[in-house]
Design a protein that fits this description.
The protein contains six helices and two strands, in the order H-H-H-E-H-E-H-H. It is mainly α. InterPro entries: Nop56/Nop58 (IPR045056).
Length: 115
């Protein structure tokens, strides 16, 4: 199966489980800059540790976090032991998520919660 077909099917069969909006425009800018530099912020670390399964010492993890920035993935792995990968499949999957993000998030309820 081609990656493009897989992404379309995955988006149709999946839903967004966790969403954490930025605190402000400045926070969004700081987070994006950190990611582009391959740096994990305290906020990102907290989000990952709260929402991903714990990695047990001596056991092979049953998941892997996909990142678009290999340097960021290395930093996350080093600091938290959360396994990361960055490859063509992950990049294609992220393209699909960006393309269908609006259908994966229930905007109305998010805005009502923020008001």
């Amino acid at each position: 199966m081609k990656i493009h077909g897989f992404v379309s099917d995955l988006v149709k069969l999946s839903s967004l489980i966790i969403f954490h909006p930025f605190e402000s425009a400045l926070d969004a800018l700081n987070q994006v800059n950190a990611v582009s530099e391959g740096v994990m912020t305290a906020e990102l670390r907290s989000f990952l540790e709260l929402n991903l399964p714990k990695v047990k010492e001596g056991k092979k993890p049953k998941f892997s976090l996909g990142t678009s920035e290999p340097k960021l993935g290395s930093h996350i792995l080093e600091a938290t032991k959360i396994p990361c990968q960055s490859n063509e499949f992950v990049l294609e999957l992220l393209r699909g998520v960006r393309l269908h993000f609006d259908s994966m998030v229930i905007w109305k309820s998010l805005f009502l919660d923020l008001v």
